[in-house]
Amino acid sequence: MTAASPPAAPAPDRFRPGAAQWGLLFSNFLMWGGFFAVVPLITVHFVSDLGWAAASVGLVLALRQLTQQGLTVFGGAWSDVVGPKPLILLGCLLRAAGFAWMGFTTTLPLLLAAALLAGIGGGLFDAPKNAAVTAVTPDRQRTRMFSVMSIAGNLGMVTGPLIGALLIGLGFRTAAVAAGSVYVLAAAVLAATLPHTRPAPGQTPPGLSGLWAAARDRRFRRFTLVLIGYFMLSTQLNVIVTLKAVALAGKAATGPLYALSAGMAVLLQYPLLRVVDRHLPTRTALVTAVLLVATALGLMAFASSFPALLACVALYSLGSMIVYPSQQTLTARFAPRALIGSYFGFSAISLGLGGAIGNVIGGTLLDAGTRLGFPALPWAVLFVVGLLTAQGLRWALRGLHEEGEEDEAPAQEGAR
């Protein structure tokens, strides 16, 4: 990205991550693969197989999302105190237990409890993982590293649903246990490769005061809150988009659906970001990406065949693959060096609230549209949410360049 990005990163052939970076990349692949091997099947298993209401399963997914992102707010601050590594390892093990437990649940309260445990695990490793990427990556390579992390995650997103689709033939329990086991492997990889970084000698750990500093950062605060709207849209791939795909093409549709979305990101994200980097400021790229996602969801109302739905998912994916590195890079740039974990933690508010609302409202609107005989209802509402979010981002990022968009983090620290 232009104005808001770190200085230009080296050419790809000079980008040679060390052991810690390779460990983070591989573990990110495993985490995303394990997540998408089971999460799409939760909706399919409990709604399509067991006949639960879509809103009930949406509540479960919302609880996991809200728990994870709510705890991530504090997980980032804790990582500034104890270092990212111990929190990431504990989080992986708790996520493994939560996913495995889901395979043995037969009632809504037990499924909610398993989702809560999985969410706690995610809350412990989410922001610390981003803080670890920042800690082991030089400033000039940071945008590139976040982009490559996204590609590794999307490789997991490609393979996870395909493996999950194969495992579901052996039963949801087998798929859930296998997905949990992947997180144990990710923990082992990071235990062997990730250094245990701590605050510099003589530097007082900020603790929860780091969160307060992030909350008082007016520009960063409004940026984070407006992004709630985007994350209401981004969660729909796991909820109503998956349900529409199953309705159009059966349970096997989950594999191609996620494979297309993630496969496009693997193949196109890096070259797409290079093109966007040359031609668009970060804030313009972010607003455009949100508009693409909103448009794709709106068009899904008219998709009457699985290929038509996949075409909409392709447009959705083009927007989504720009949002993640843009948001992460801006967050790292906003943060004073000693408060990186706290800023990443505070940024989780947008994903936590947006994801929770999105999971609930997606299933609820789908059920309401069915009752009212208006199946386009959820897609129309989401399209409007996307338009409002794009306009909100234009407002939230207004004046970014004038306020020192290209300044280094330490300079920003002094300005706050």
Automatic annotation (TrEMBL):
GO cellular component, one term: plasma membrane
UniProt superkingdom: Bacteria
Bilayer topology: Multi-pass membrane protein
Pfam families assigned to the protein according to its UniProt record, in alphabetical order: MFS_1 (PF07690)
Principal place of residence: membrane
Record's keyword terms, sorted: Cell membrane, Membrane, Transmembrane, Transmembrane helix, Transport
Localization (cell): Cell membrane
Gene3D superfamilies reported for this sequence: MFS general substrate transporter like domains
The protein's name in its UniProt record: MFS transporter
Organism from which the protein derives: Deinococcus ficus
